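Why do we care about 3D structure at all? Because function follows from shape, and shape follows, mostly, from sequence. That is the central idea of this module. The next example makes it concrete: a single protein chain, its amino acid sequence, and then its structure expressed as tokens.
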Amino acid sequence: MVNFYLVWFILLGLVQMTTLLIKNSSNPNLFIQTKIADNFFSKLLGLMFKQKLEENCGLLLSDKYESRINSSIHMLFMNFDLCVVWLDKNLLVVDVKEAKRWRLAYFPRTAAQHVLETGITHINDFSIGDQLSFENEK
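And the structure:
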């Protein structure tokens, strides 16, 4: 059991995430402060085991290419439901879903390059076709 925890803490140490602000042109008052998960370990860890997600915060899973398979998510080991927003390479919303905890898999309707996981309260803040933008946090 000690080995499991040792490996887990090593993985946590490898997960270095930068922060971005995500804005929606259709809803200018909305911003989501996100951490970026762009490597295998940070995507694997994601939001698993977190007890809660702060309001207007989230996680952006980012890949190099658009794909339905690579942008799929699971909700195993999650303690809360999520609003999941899939974005293409141009940061256009291609799908929005309510993801329930402990469900096996969610896939976007079409290929996506980025996946925004945020609080379920944001489910009505995004629509297919919305244009999002990323800004470095100041």
